[in-house]
Amino acid sequence: MNRIIIQAVAIIAIFFGLYWGLSQIDWMTLFEVKKMTDTTEEKLGDLFWELYSKENTEINGRNAKAPLDSLLEKICKANYIDRKSIQLHIVKNDQINAFALPNGHLVVNSALIIDSENESELCGVLGHEVAHIQLSHVMKKLVKEIGLSVLISMTAGGGGETVKEAVKMLSSSAYDRTLEKEADLKSVEYLTAANINPEPFADFLYRMGDGEASSIKYLSWMSTHPDSKERAAYIVESIDKEKKDYKPVLAKSTWEKLKKYLEEE
Amino acid sequence: MTTQFEYVPGEHEAEKASNSYLMSLIAVIAGLPLPIINLIATLIFYLGNRNGTYFVRWHCTQALLSQFSLLFMNSFGFWWTVSIVFGDETVSNPYIAYMMTVFLFNVVEFIATIYTAIATRKGQHVSWWLYGDLTNLICKP
After folding, report:
1. Which of A108, A202, B31, B96 is a good FRET partner for A265, with 20 to 30 A between their CA atoms?
2. pLDDT exceeds 90 at position A108
3. Which domain holds residue A177?
């Protein structure tokens, strides 16, 4: 009996010893796992954006780009995010929607900006999408829904229809509840660090969920992000009530000019 | 380790005992990557030969025990992989190290199983390190 115990302990020790020994080696670098994933993401991002921009008009006017850049810059700088890692695109589209594509492409529809009552509301949505990018939600969702092998074959030029499906999925369906909540709370964190009031972000969600906006024809961002009121509630709860030193990023006239410009576009 | 069994097994016994190991090998090929399949296959064979001769029962038990311990390692690896593919986990150094360890253990087990299947077919008695002693505890003449 003793011999069996000694032998069993020895086998378990060999197993864990081997595991411990092998885990000391940096396999990720050795197999270039990270490099490989980064290249795939880069290629997918460009591929998806290329396809999306073919069907939608990008707004490149300074009056639209500059204010949004300022907002994004402010969020990124306060949160030590490399601004260059995010590629902002404003697209002429009457659906209230914003979404992230791989490799940091952040797409904001003009209707969303027009519908935002103030810059803080827009910043909330931007922060939410930046969070999806920073927390690698985009690739996680793609791998989960489509599979890594298909994604890699896409980068090699395969699967035209699948690419379309993937873009459609990213632009018009939500992440799962935990990822959405994670992105919401991260957005509040980003905004707080950037001295932007996160409360309007909750107001925005609440307004959308309230049916007040039901007269608006296209409400993509809301229909794909269910339980808006519930989200508004936990966002309000997570806000630091003590903090009061919020400062506007844009001048009021710049904000008004931005909306007017997009309405006319 | 090849040792002398209590008696010289007959041709029919040797074939059945050898099959118990083959069972797990075939299941490895058919059941990958589901680790439970080989255990189920060996278990069915074990149950089928419960009333067999001592030599056959002994080897069925040893095959079953070896599959049983692999089940734990492989299941953990299997679910880890599932959570990477479908969940929020990502490929990491510990994961790669674990999969390599499991792979090495499976290879050793695979080779030992082939060797034992051939040896028992010839009527030789092969008692594995640890598993042989465990089998002696469970399986009585």
Report:
1. A202
2. yes
3. 32-264
Residues A138 and A7 reside in one and the same domain: no
User: What are the pLDDT digits (tens) for B17-53?
Assistant: 888 888 777 766 765 656 677 777 778 888 888 888 8
Q: Do B97 and A28 touch (CB under 8 A)?
A: no
Share the mean pLDDT of chain B: 82
Please say if the pLDDT value at position A216 is more than 80.
no
**Percent of chain A predicted with pLDDT > 70:** 91
Q: Smallest CA–CA separation between B2 and chain A, in Å?
A: 18
How far from chain centre, in Å, is Cα A146? 18
Overall domain count for chain A: 2
**Do A12 and A137 sit in the same domain of this protein?**
no
Interface test with A, best of B65, B91, B107 (most A CBs within 10 A): B91
Q: Per-residue pLDDT tens for B89-126?
A: 777 888 989 999 988 988 888 888 889 989 888 888 88
Asked if residue A74 and residue A20 are part of one domain, the reply reads: no
Do A47 and A127 have their domain in common?
yes
Residues A25, A43: one domain? no
d(CA A57, CA A243): 40
Q: Identify which of B64, B66, B74 has the alpha carbon closest to the alpha carbon of residue B35.
A: B74
- Using a CB-CB cut-off of 8 Å, the residues of chain B touching A136 are 90
